[in-house]
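Support reply, case 0932

Customer input (verbatim):
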Amino acid sequence: MITIVARLLAALAALSLASVAHAQDFPKRPITMIVPFAAGGTSDVIARAVADQMSPALGQPIVIENVAGAGGSTALTRAARAEPDGYTIAIGNAGTSAAAYTIYPKLPFTPDSFAPIAMVAKTFGIVALRKDFPAKDLKEFIDYAKKNPGKVNLGHAGVGSSNYLICKSFVHAAGVDVTLVGYRGAAPALTDAIGGQIDGVCDAAASVSQAVSDKLVKGIVVGSTVRLSTLPDLPTSAEAGLPDFEAQGWNGLFAPKGTPPETIAKLNAAARSSVASDVVKKRFVDLSTVAPDAGEMTPEVLQQLVTRDVEKYKKLLADDQK
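Our regenerated output:
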């Protein structure tokens, strides 16, 4: 009996040493970063900017894999089922990593299915309209929508996405009845708004600000407490008369549960290096996106954001679940 126990302990010790050795050698090959939406949207452009600068820090390329569908849940299902070795990670946001649990109560994963790595960006939600929409500002839009209930349609990146949450927060604050149209990503929704196929979009500044600047669509409000430097003429929600509209979001990196702490630490260090780089800083300015402070980039802070937002959106989306 003692011999059997000794052998089991020895085997466990060997497995532990092997795991540590594997983590110390990480990474030996390219890493896949899963993006839960189509190319060109907020999560995609942020992921590519961050991944490009993480690669030199890790000594391996990071390959972006766009997996659209079900508001990001298709992608996170794949990420949750991946081998917990650090070679498959995913970028998430308040939609895919928090609100999704209320919107899709039977998901094959939970918040505990993931190991947080780091928050990498703070984002700001904008409501923008097709350029020929018969309202020049937020007040006129709300008046129009109230006179035409259900007739105005706003596009978003799919139910459960952060853009969907921007729409829900906006509609709730404005007290209007509009039709929300889901797409497989922010980019196709914006394309249809530019083309006049839909009335407008709820989107993050990272993917819509250039179209607003180029007057391809007209921004009417940013759900922020301060104006964006890239869109100085776009009023904040308070300035526009809708102070209850708040749409400040985040993007974070996650690995499958069980990924070794040493591997998480290496990925976290690479993420910090990336966000601190001049290249990413400049790209974030162009995207009207803010980099988190160093103290906000711990796995613990990202976990706190997920926990907070799961409860936040459970309340916001309660009526949808009745």
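We compared this against your earlier run and they match. Two observations from our side: Residues 29-122+250-321 form a domain with the D-Maltodextrin-Binding Protein; domain 2 fold (CATH 3.40.190.150). DSSP finds eleven helices and nine strands in the chain. Please reopen the case if you see a mismatch on your end.
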